[in-house]
Every structure is written in C-alpha cells, then in structure tokens.
Amino acid sequence: MDPARRPHPLSLSEIRALEKQGLDQGLPLMSRAGQCAAGLALRYCQPCHDVWLLVGPGNNGGDALTAGAHLLNAGLTVTAIMPAEPAAQANDARNALKQWSRIGQSTQTTLPRMDGDNAPKRPDLVIDGLFGIGLNKQLGQPWQTMIDDINESGIPVLSLDIPSGMMADTGQCLGRPVRARWTVAFIAPSYALYDSASREFTGEWDVCTLGLQA
Question: Where does (6S)-NADPHX bind (predicted)?
C-alpha cells in the first residue's frame, strides 16, 4: 500500500470495538474478509493455481476458509490444513467450517509432505489464518512446527490480520512468527504493522476496512 494512503494504526481494543460495532449491526464481516483476502491472493500471486490454507481455531481460521471458498469458485485447487477444531467461542469460525463441508471440502490436520519423490506439488501460495491479532501467548505445538516448515519452504505467504506469532499492539514475537510476503489487515492496521522491526515478518501490507470506519 502507498504509505501516503495508509490509515492510522489502531490498538487491539480499538479494532475489537469496531468489529463488535459491525457485528451488532449485522454486517457480514467474515464474508467480506474472505472475499477481500481471496481478491488480494489472486492479485499478488500470479499465476496462482494451488493454495494451502493454514486454518487456526479462531475467527482468523474462519476468514481463511471463507477466502478458500472464493478461490475454489475462481477455479483454484485449495487444500485446508486445520490441526484443531474451532474454539468453542468462535461461532463464525464454526459456521465457516460447516460451509466448507457443505461445498464438499474437507480438512487435514498436518501439512502435506514437501520433499521426497512422492511429495505432492508445492502450492503457489499459502494463506496464513492460524492466529490473528488476538494472540497473546507463546506459540505452542503443532503451530510452531507448522510455521517453521512453511518458513523453511520458501513458499509465498499471505497472512490475514497479522503474521501468526506476533502481538498486534507491540510487534513482539511470541515464538518464531510466520514470515509473510504480504499481509492484509482487516478493519484497520495494528501498531505492529508500523514497526520497522516487524517488516521481515509482515512483508508488504494492505488494509480491507470491511466497510467499517474508525
């Protein structure tokens, strides 16, 4: 995004307040986030035929699944890797998983093999929907190993909200974060995206406001 057009960063609590406002108004925020992420994926990754989704237990994972559904509609091959079921409180993520199943798609709990004679073709893009701006503790397993494997693979990554493994307000690394080539912030950018020390993880970034204004 052109630095001159970048909106001011907001704190985690401010972004959450805007999100609640939108949900209270009945706005389809996850649908909008998924559509926006899919559009950016197609713009950034050219040519793009195969995509892996890293699906976390919260609404960030739901955003990834929703983006994946749009990419399927665009004719891409999409593989969803989901090591754990959605958290009990993540109702939108649970609904996204149900919709993923309704369109005939399944999830797998581990990454496909990325080396060896019988390894499947590597994807053109990985969408990181493991953890968004709400992460506030160290990355545990299997998340850290999955992130390490993706980082070592060199496959381009588009992170949703913020690269998984970073704190939104400070940019603090809670383990070894995803090294994204691109990041899309939903609603507003977090302070971490403006931290020069975070650039090696965030890559280039853009914002989808989802129809909400600070």
Answer: 59-63, 132-138, 161
